[in-house]
């Protein structure tokens, strides 16, 4: 059967497509209006929720700056890193993620841990506890490490006693370890002597003051009391 529409004939089977296209012609304007409205929505018109602050950037785009407890375009969601059922373990860093139009978390795991919440410990070089005398093992890779030694010890495994760690040299002396004998040597500044630079040098024994000046010993040095007509450290 054929239908006559404004002097044009259409097959009856084409009526479905005519109705389909007509429906789209009616829907497209409303969809465009809705899209424009959504694209134009910003915190300037919608406002930021839960204490968020609306900030307009140099490119003219306005976004919400949310506090740490909330996330979302308008700070409308509670931060799942703080309120969700799962927590990143073993020092993992929590980041908010979106999956299937819902909020979730992604854990960035430190070296040596894995799985969604960093709950699985991976076999690594620190498992054998290579650092001695209280040293802390820090992974460089799963197969390599460094030891952070406590005061008084040094070496790759903190197995060498650092005899200078107790600062045995006094009065600004510099401590130097003597290899192989587990001992040290102090390099003393001027005015001090002895194994630990504790002895004050008696400079007045060398009569440093000239022209009858009187030498007075001081801590680490000396002073000349000059007679009339003379001045200076020694004259």
Automatic annotation (TrEMBL):
Protein name: EGF-like domain-containing protein
Record keyword 4Fe-4S present: no
Record Pfam families: EGF
A single BP term in Gene Ontology: Notch signaling pathway
Disulfide feature: 66-75, 109-118, 149-158, 169-186, 188-197
InterPro entries, per database record: EGF, EGF-like_Ca-bd_dom, EGF-type_Asp/Asn_hydroxyl_site, EGF_Ca-bd_CS
Keyword Nucleotide-binding: no
Record keywords, A-Z: Disulfide bond, EGF-like domain, Repeat
Source organism, top-level taxon: Eukaryota
Database matches in PROSITE patterns: ASX_HYDROXYL, EGF_1, EGF_2, EGF_3, EGF_CA
Listed Gene3D superfamilies: Laminin
Annotated EGF-like domain residues: 39-76, 77-119, 122-159, 160-198, 200-233
